[in-house]
Every structure is written in structure tokens, then in C-alpha cells.
Design brief:
The structure holds 2 protein chains of 2 kinds.
Chain A lengths: L13 H8 L3 H7 L3 E5 L5 E4 L1 H7 L3 H4 L10 H18 L1 E10 L5 E12 L5 E10 L1 H36 L3 H15 L4 E8 L10 E8 L5 H9 L3 H5 L4 E4 L2 H6 L1 H9 L2 E11 L2 E11 L19 H45 L4 H15 L3 E8 L2 E9 L5 H9 L10 H8 L3 E3 L4 H7 L3 H9 L2 E11 L2 E11 L7 H38 L10 E8 L10 E7 L5 E8 L4 H17 L6 H15 L5 E8 L5 E7 L5 E4 L2 E4 L18 E4 L5 E5 L2 H4 L5 H13 L6 H12 L8 E8 L1
Antiparallel strand pairs in A: 1-2, 1-5, 3-4, 4-5, 6-7, 6-10, 8-9, 9-10, 11-12, 11-15, 13-14, 14-15, 16-25, 17-18, 18-19, 19-20, 20-23, 21-22, 21-24, 24-25
Chain B lengths: L1 E2 L14 H4 L6 E2 L20 H14 L5 E6 L1 H12 L4 E7 L17 H27 L5 H7 L8 H13 L13 E7 L6 H10 L4 E8 L3 H4 L1 H11 L3
Parallel strand pairs in B: 1-2, 1-3, 3-4, 4-5, 5-6
């Protein structure tokens, strides 16, 4: 140590100062402003100064021989053993280790210790020398700093949590995604045992009903806890609890008031539930529930029973903010989902509309529609239609092939018309949608017609049913019934709306089809009445006729043929084609044929018939034009006369040769009249005359000339003069499965 | 395989390991969170139980394709060894437990040596040294380049750990209760008991010995909790005596 130079002026205290600076090492050791001590490697104190002894309030002779670690607090002892001793051994010195000495009166003295290890030449430890500084103020300051640092870290953690929540939410498109983010992040942020998002669901069909609470996601929550919480809060959970961040602490008061909730919390080793509102623009959407407990581990709990760590204001603010972020994200996700649902719904309805537009046959259309419904909307789809024979079920479909047989059985059971409980019947009678949100066994029993019916319905495992009436032009045409099984879950409002849209379209299609059916039936009746019966059996002639209606549209057309025994020996032949193939065409054909028959009374020549029809057409008020060919034949002589009103010429087949008779057609019937030109010739014995309408030559080929050539080729290759065989041969050669036009064919062979 | 306990790292074994290098394959490692381990691998959930550490031990054995391992665990690692054995008994041939304790906190008639408030005090002590550690690092950080040796001297260069991890490891160490796992040990076991060990008192060592069938109890003259540091020769000799010839 360097002594102060006596360079300054003399002073009265100089002498005493000199005395004091004459340091006595022993005095300095004993009374130094720090504690000194030396210990053996095992911690036994072998030398200690007075300062140290004064600090801890014990005399030196009592301290000597004690273990240094024995003077420390328990925490300090563990720290000494686990840190100080190993460090000293390995690096020979330690600095500024914080230790608490326990004074004689039991109070703690915060200290900092530095220590060195004195070793012999072989490195074997001999002694530890330590200096100990009192650090009460410093420790207080450090604790303050530590607390500040912890707070800063907490604050940083919270802002990080919030950042992550915001960024995760930006990527969350569905309500499910939003729920996952919120539940996971809030649980992490509060080190909660569990977390759940419970949303309020308002029923748009019944806005006055108390809102249902739907847990959309729960993580780490005891099974029955949310139910108990809902029971405890009643329907007021969302409304009441969501006014602010609320804390429900498991204490004696709660045990008394809410034994169920308390038991659930205790079973889950929870100490506190925190409920934070989830809202957007003031609308309460639900609540975030966090379950706090003793820690998600199997470690021993240090806390005293009943002791709970209350949430800090910062945590409350964090939850409040997360709740609002969640609310906004939920609104956005719902909008997104609704848009997606609408697009999906539009595409479904478009597909249904396309299917319905293609409708030709009601039963097939309804069946295909039911197939579409069970693929996209429901598990079971049944369509009942009102008919002359009562209700019929043209479609019963199931989405699951394994359960399709149940649906088939359902088809066998008729709709119980008298059971008002049955939603389908009720829908049909009331004209309004019937939606059974929850199907239970009592419901099934109330609608079943018999035990077998009940068994089938039970096996279908239904959870929801909706029946929508098919209405068009103010009439109830039937009912569309859809059902969901427990695997699909209940219908949403949107599902039922889609079913209603579908029923509206289907109703229109069914109404149209029913009118169409009526037309078809009428046409058939007309045709049956208008077509002549089988040709008469005539001496010296063999005759065969064929009539094939077009395959598209109504099964009747305006084609006709006629064979009649005229007064005298001659036979009258006719073949004609009224434009169009509908009821009007059929009716016109019938009228034409009647007029023709009337004209035959005085046995006019074919040319006269054409002329009379031409001139009389306006008087007859026939609504369609027609082509026709009339002939008279003397079966004995073979004399044949033919006149044509715009009609294709007949074919003469004679001994393997075929040719068109050169009949010059006049204008069509209904066109401005022109003079008919009659063809006169002979039908040899064994030859066949083929009369036909243009459907025969237009069926295979769009090119009518090609069709005429095909007909000649077919006729000449037929190798038969039997009229039936020839008819069949020509039809098989010239027609396919589909015909756009009717075909009338008449073959006559002179024997 | 030597496994360090709470508070330090594999450097603790430096005075004992040479004794066994000649006739054993030595495996030293730092628990995740300690020493030179990858702190990024520290998973608060996994390491919220000693099983997380035990799983690592098993993983190391499998990665190194070890068998007939003699696991030497100090302090908390003695119990980690018990759990590793329980998870993969086929890997191990022997267990040496230095200063073991299956539960530090007293529980009814069971004496662990610590009350609940003692443990709370320990966690406080760790907090108190939290800033201390940082302070000791300060000269290096500030770059006292003119006195590099001084900076190095100031630094507690061994056993540096992240304070938060240390605190968590302390919680898991001192709040675990693995008494029931002792009965699962089915290999020859040596319990090394120090004298005057405040962390693992003799009564606790006796408890461990009594609950592991066929275990050998050896009382060391060495005092404190780290005989492998304070009395490496005695410790090594005790282990050597336990090992088969």
C-alpha cells in the first residue's frame, strides 16, 4: 500500500492519521469492512474475522468449526453445493456469488461472496478463502431490476403473442382456423391448462329463442367443464360473462353456489376459469374460456391449497385484445365461409337445374335429382309425387351403398297419408317446409306405419329430416324429403334453403312433365283411334303395313296409310304425311283421312281426289299442310293409277329389280292448287308396290337423295315378294334406333 | 456413461473419468439446456418432467449403439438413470447413483430434507444469482480488451447456463417425485452416499438403497454433494469396486 505523501500543509490531525495508517494487518483483518473467512475443502470454517461474526450475530468461537454452508439459507446451501463448490474446484475462484447468511436471530443477510481455492503443488485443495460483502441494498436493487426485467419480458411476450395472433389470424380462412389460433395462442400466453372457444349461435328461423352456445374448439378442457359452465351461467353465459374479462376462482363461495362447476374444476385440478368476451363491433359472438391450474405437469405443487395466482392487469388486457381480434377474424371467416357456401350452393343448384332441363321422363329425372341430392346435401332423399293412383315414390336414394337396401325397403312402404305427424304428409297438406331438427325414437314411432317401417327408419340412424312440398301453379304436386344421419350431423339453415330452392325447380319440372304426360296420353288415344285397323284381306293381293312413330317427343305423328275396297273391283290405296308430329298433326291426319274416305263414295280417280282435296282444303279448315299419294288398283288386271300431292313416288319391285314409278307430283295439300297429273300403268303379277312417307328415306341419311338410293338398293336386294318380309327388310336396312320423323310404310304384292 | 446433475455440466467428471478410460468406453454428455448443448433444442414441455431427460439418455445409447451400459448419474441424473432404465432396460448393465434423491420435498413420514418453503427459497436464490451471472459476463461484453486475462478470470467459465433454463431445471429437479420408480430397477445398483450432504442426506440414500432390490450402499467419507469433485479418488475407487472385474 502506498502511503499519502506529506506534501500538504500541516494539520492537527496528521499525527492521529499517521497512527491509523500504521495498519496492523491483524486489526485490518478483524475489522475490515467486509467479512473474511477461510474454510477447509469440506466447508469447515477455520478462520473468520470479527466483521463477519458481528454481521451474523455470533461469536467467533462459536462460528469456528462450523460449516460455512451451514450458515447459509437453504436455497444458498443448495446453490453452494451445486454451483459454488464445483466452480471453485474447476476454475479455482468464483466471483460475486449471491448468498443469504442466516443470522443468529434467524433473519437473512443478503451477501455477495468472492472465493479462491488454495491448492498444494499437486493441485489438491487445501483451503477456501472467501470475502463476503453485505449486499442488502444491492440485492433489493437487483430484485427490482429482475422484476423490471421480468415485466419487460412479460410485456414483450405479450406483444409477441399478440403479433402472432394477428399474423395467424390473417391466414385463418375458416371459423375452425380462427378457433384453433385463438385457443392455442391464448392457452400458450397464459400457460393455461385448457382453452376453449364457445360461440353464440342464433337461429335465424327463430331469432327470439335464447342463443345456443356452441363450443367450436376446446383444447385440454375437462370433458364436462364447458357443460357445467353453461349450466351454471344459464343462457346468460355469453351475455353476462362477456361484459368483461371475468375470473371464476374455485373457492368456498363457488363450492357453495355452484357445486357442479366446482366439482368439475376440482376433478380437472383447476384453480380458476377465465372468461373473455369475443366480440366484433359491439356484437357479442361468444367467449374464450381459459382453465388455469397447478401446472400442466406431474410436478409437486408448491402452492398452498386455495392459493391462486391472480391474473395481472396486463394479462386481462391481452385477453381482451385477443377477444376483439378473434371477433373480427370470426366475422371475416364467416363472411368468407358464407361466400364459399353460396358459391357451392349456386353450383349445386345450377347442376340440378341442368339436370332438370334435360328432363324427358319424370321418373328418371326425379331419380337422378335424388342421386344428386344424396351426394351433396343429405344422406336420404325421397320424392313422393301425387298421381291418379295416389302418392307414388318415384325416387328413394341413400348416400351410403351399404345402407341403400334400407332405402329400397323404404320404397316398399307407402307414404302414410293419414299420419299428420309425418313431416312429408304435413308438408304436403300445409304447403310449407317441415324441418325436424332432432330425430329421436319417439318421433320415429309417431310416423311409422308399422313395425317393419319403424325398424327400417331406426336402422337409418337419422338425426334430422326436412320435408319440402313441391308446388307449381298453386297445386301441391308432391313432396321432397331429405334426411341426414348421425355421421353427417344436423342440417343447417342453408341446407334447408337449398332443399327449398330445389323443390321449387322440381315442382316446375314435374308440372311441365305432367302436362307433357297428358299430351302423350292424348296423342296415343288419338293415334289409336285414327290409324286404320289392320288392312282388309283382299282377293289376289297380299298387303303389309307398318307405322313407326318418331322416337323423340310424342309417340304419334301425322303420317297415315289407308287400304280400302272401293265400290266395284278396285282397291283404293293412300299414304300421307301431315307436317309435324304432335297432337295437331295427328288430328289433322284424322280429319284428312275422314275427308278422303268421304270422297271415295263415288269412286273418283286418284287425280280427282288430289284436285278435290286441293280445292277444298281452305273449307276444311285443316291447320297443317300435308303430302299424300293416292292410288287405285284393279287386282285382276293389274291396272294401277296414281296421283301425288307433293309426296315421294312409290317403288315398284319386280323380280329383284326395283325402281321408282315416275309419278309427277303436284303441289302439297294446303298449298295453292295446281292440276294433278295421274300416272297410269300396270302392276305385274308377283310384283310389289311400296308406298312410304319420307321418314323412311330420311332416317339413315340426312341427304334425301342418298336415302332414295338406299331404299332402291334395299328393295332390290330383299329377295322376297312377301309384303311382311319386305317391310321388315326395308325397315331394318333403312332405320335406326332413333327417328326424328314418323314412318308409314305400305307394301302390296299382286299375287 | 456419466451424467451430470443440476448446476453444472460434463466438466464435473474430469477428475473421475481418467480412472476408467483404460478399460471402458466413456460417454460424456451435457443435458439439453446445460453446458455446450444446443439451447435451441430446449423444449419446456418435454423437459417438464425427468422423463424428457431419460428419453435423451436412451436416444444417446441407441444412436451410439451401446449395450451393457453402466450409467453413472450424479444427483438428479441418478433418478434420470432410473427412468432411462425403466424405458429401455435392455440397454443397461449397471447403475451408479451418486447422491440420489427420489423426492427432495418432505412428504408425511418421508424425509426428503426440504420443506416447500426451502424449495421456494432455492428458486429465489437462483433469481438472486440471475443478474449476478449477467454481471460477470459484463466485462467481456464491454470488451476490456486491454485486460483480456482479467475478463476471463472474472467469468465463471464453467457451468454457464441460461438462467431461465436453470430455473426450470431446478423446478423439475426439486419438485419431482419418482419414489415409485425405484422398484423398477432390475440391474446391479450402487448407491454412493456422501457425508454431510445437505441436498441428499443419508436418510434419503438409505431410502433409495432399501427400495432398489439388491442394491449396494456405500458410504463415502467425502463431504458435500459432489464427491467426484471433492474426493475423486475415493469416488472412483468405490465405483471400481462395484464394477465386475
Amino acid at each position: 500500500m502506498t502511503r499519502r505523501q506529506k506534501s500538504g500543509g500541516p494539520g492537527p490531525e496528521d499525527g492521529r492519521l499517521d497512527h491509523l495508517l500504521e495498519d496492523d494487518p491483524a486489526e485490518l483483518y478483524e475489522n475490515a469492512p467486509m467479512g473474511y473467512l477461510s474454510t477447509l475443502p469440506d466447508g469447515r470454517i477455520v478462520k473468520v474475522n470479527r466483521t463477519f461474526c458481528d454481521w451474523i450475530g455470533r461469536p467467533a468461537d462459536e462460528v469456528l468449526g462450523e460449516h460455512f454452508q451451514g450458515l447459509l439459507s437453504m436455497g444458498g446451501r443448495v446453490y453452494y453445493e451445486t454451483h459454488l463448490v464445483p466452480l471453485l474446484r474447476m476454475q479455482g475462484a468464483v466471483r460475486e456469488i449471491a448468498l443469504d447468511l442466516v443470522r443468529a436471530d434467524g433473519t437473512a443477510l443478503a451477501c455477495l461472496a468472492n472465493a479462491v481455492e488454495i491448492r498444494d503443488d499437486d493441485g489438491v485443495p487445501l483451503l477456501m478463502r472467501a470475502t463476503v460483502f453485505e449486499a442488502t441494498a444491492r440485492r433489493r436493487y437487483e430484485r427490482g431490476m429482475l422484476a423490471a426485467q421480468r415485466r419487460a419480458e412479460e410485456s414483450e411476450r405479450r406483444s409477441l403473442t399478440l403479433q402472432m395472433v394477428v399474423s395467424d389470424l390473417a391466414a385463418a380462412l375458416s371459423v375452425g382456423d380462427v378457433a384453433s389460433v385463438i385457443v392455442e395462442r391464448s392457452r400458450e400466453a397464459l400457460h393455461a391448462r385448457g382453452s376453449a372457444l364457445v360461440l353464440v349461435e342464433t337461429d335465424p328461423h327463430d331469432p327470439d329463442a335464447s342463443p345456443a352456445l356452441q363450443p367450436v374448439r376446446a383444447d385440454g378442457m375437462p370433458d364436462n367443464l364447458l357443460q357445467e359452465l353453461r349450466d351454471a351461467a344459464g343462457s346468460q353465459l355469453a351475455v353476462e360473462l362477456a361484459r368483461g374479462v371475468r375470473s371464476i376462482v374455485l373457492d368456498d363461495r363457488l363450492r357453495g353456489v355452484q357445486p357442479g362447476l366446482s366439482a368439475a374444476m376440482a376433478a380437472g385440478q383447476l384453480t380458476e376459469l377465465v372468461v373473455a368476451p369475443v366480440s366484433a363491433d359491439g356484437r357479442r359472438l361468444g367467449v374464450l374460456v381459459l382453465a388455469l391450474g397447478a401446472g400442466p405437469d406431474d410436478l409437486i405443487d408448491l402452492g398452498r391449497p386455495g392459493e391462486t395466482a391472480m391474473l395481472t392487469t396486463a394479462d386481462v388486457n391481452l385477453l381482451w385484445t385477443i377477444g376483439r381480434q378473434a371477433g373480427q377474424a370470426l366475422e371475416r371467416a364467416r363472411l368468407h365461409e358464407e361466400t364459399a357456401r353460396q358459391a357451392e350452393r349456386a353450383s349445386f343448384l345450377l347442376e340440378a337445374a341442368r339436370l332438370l332441363a334435360e328432363a324427358a321422363d319424370v321418373a328418371e329425372t326425379v331419380d337422378r335429382l335424388a342421386g344428386l341430392v344424396v351426394g351433396r346435401l343429405a344422406d336420404v332423399c325421397v320424392v313422393d309425387l301425387d298421381s291418379d293412383e295416389g302418392l307414388i315414390r318415384p325416387a328413394v336414394r341413400h348416400s351410403d351403398p351399404a345402407r341403400a337396401h334400407l332405402a329400397e325397403e323404404l320404397r316398399a312402404h307407402h307414404l302414410p297419408r293419414r299420419s299428420k305427424a309425418h313431416p312429408s304428409v304435413h308438408a304436403l297438406q300445409s304447403g310449407g317446409t317441415q324441418w325436424i331438427r332432432t330425430v329421436d325414437d319417439a318421433f320415429l314411432q309417431s310416423v311409422a306405419v308399422d313395425e317393419a317401417h319403424l325398424e327400417v327408419m331406426r336402422a337409418l340412424d337419422l338425426t334430422a329430416v326436412a320435408a319440402v312440398p313441391l308446388t307449381a301453379e298453386g297445386r301441391q304436386l308432391g313432396v321432397l324429403t331429405i334426411a341426414a344421419d348421425t355421421r353427417r350431423g344436423p342440417f343447417t339453415v342453408a341446407d334447408v334453403e337449398v332443399a327449398e330452392q330445389l323443390a321449387l325447380q322440381l315442382g316446375l319440372v314435374v308440372a311441365r312433365a305432367q302436362r307433357f304426360d297428358l299430351a302423350v296420353r292424348t296423342s296415343h288415344a288419338l293415334q289409336a283411334n285414327l290409324l286404320p285397323p289392320a288392312p282388309p284381306s283382299l282377293e289376289g293381293l297380299a298387303i303389309a303395313v307398318r307405322y313407326l312413330a318418331a322416337t323423340y317427343g310424342v309417340d304419334v305423328g301425322g303420317d297415315f296409310y289407308d287400304v280400302v275396297q272401293l265400290p266395284g273391283v278396285e282397291v283404293g290405296l293412300a299414304v300421307g304425311d301431315v307436317v309435324g308430329h304432335d297432337i295437331t298433326a295427328a288430328a289433322t291426319m284424322g280429319q284428312l283421312r275422314s275427308v278422303y274416305r268421304a270422297l271415295l263414295a263415288d269412286g273418283p280417280a286418284p287425280g280427282v281426289i288430289v284436285d278435290r282435296l286441293q280445292t277444298g282444303w281452305p273449307l276444311l279448315s285443316l291447320r297443317r299442310m300435308a303430302t299424300a299419294l293416292f292410288a287405285s288398283l284393279d287386282p285382276v288386271s293389274g291396272r294401277l293409277r296414281i296421283a301425288s300431292a307433293g309426296h315421294p313416288p312409290p317403288v315398284l319391285v319386280d323380280g329383284g329389280r326395283a325402281g321408282y314409278l315416275p309419278v309427277r307430283p303436284s303441289r302439297m295439300l294446303g298449298a295453292p292448287p295446281s292440276q294433278a297429273v295421274e300416272w297410269n300403268g300396270l302392276l305385274p303379277r308377283g310384283a310389289s308396290l311400296v308406298l312410304f312417307t319420307d321418314g323412311l328415306v330420311e332416317s339413315r341419311s340426312a341427304d334425301i337423295d342418298e336415302g332414295f338410293d338406299l331404299l332402291l338398293a334395299a328393295a332390290s336386294s330383299a329377295g322376297t315378294s312377301d309384303p311382311d318380309a319386305l317391310c321388315d327388310h326395308l325397315l331394318s336396312e333403312l332405320t335406326g334406333a332413333h327417328r326424328a320423323d314418323d314412318i308409314a310404310l305400305l307394301v302390296l304384292t299382286r299375287l | 456413461m456419466f451424467a451430470h446433475g443440476f448446476g453444472c455440466d460434463q466438466e464435473m467428471w474430469r477428475y473421475v473419468v481418467p480412472e476408467f478410460e483404460s478399460d471402458h468406453r466413456i460417454v460424456l454428455f451435457d443435458h439439453v439446456g446445460a453446458g455446450n448443448s444446443d439451447l435451441g433444442a430446449y423444449d419446456r414441455v418435454k423437459y417438464n418432467s425427468l422423463r424428457g431427460y431419460a428419453d435423451d439418455v436412451v436416444e444417446i445409447c441407441r444412436a451410439l449403439e451401446l449395450d451393457d451400459v453402466v450409467f453413472v448419474g450424479h444427483s438428479v441424473s441418478a433418478m434420470i438413470g432410473v427412468l432411462a432404465l425403466k424405458a429401455a432396460p435392455e440397454l443397461f448393465g449397471g447403475l451408479v447413483m451418486i447422491g440420489p434423491s427420489p423426492r427432495y420435498v418432505d412428504d408425511g413420514d418421508y424425509v426428503g430434507g426440504f420443506s416447500r418453503s426451502d424449495i421456494a427459497g432455492l428458486l429465489d436464490a437462483l433469481d438472486a444469482n440471475h443478474l449476478g451471472w449477467s454481471a460477470q459476463m459484463a466485462p467481456v461484453v464491454m470488451g476490456t480488451s486491454d485486460q483480456p486475462e482479467f475478463a476471463a478470470e472474472l467469468t465463471n467459465s464453467f457451468c454457464r447456463t441460461d438462467p431461465d433454463i436453470t430455473r426450470h431445471f431446478a423446478r423439475v429437479t426439486f419438485l419431482s417425485d419418482n419414489r415409485a420408480d425405484l422398484a423398477t430397477v432390475g440391474v446391479p445398483t450402487l448407491v454412493l452416499q456422501c457425508s454431510e450432504d445437505v441436498i441428499a442426506p443419508e436418510v434419503v440414500g438409505r431410502y433409495v438403497h432399501e427400495h432398489i432390490r439388491g442394491s449396494v450402499f456405500t458410504q463415502l467419507a467425502a463431504t458435500g454433494h459432489c464427491p467426484h469433485l471433492s474426493a475423486p479418488e475415493e469416488t472412483a475407487a468405490a465405483i471400481r469396486a462395484f464394477l465386475p472385474e
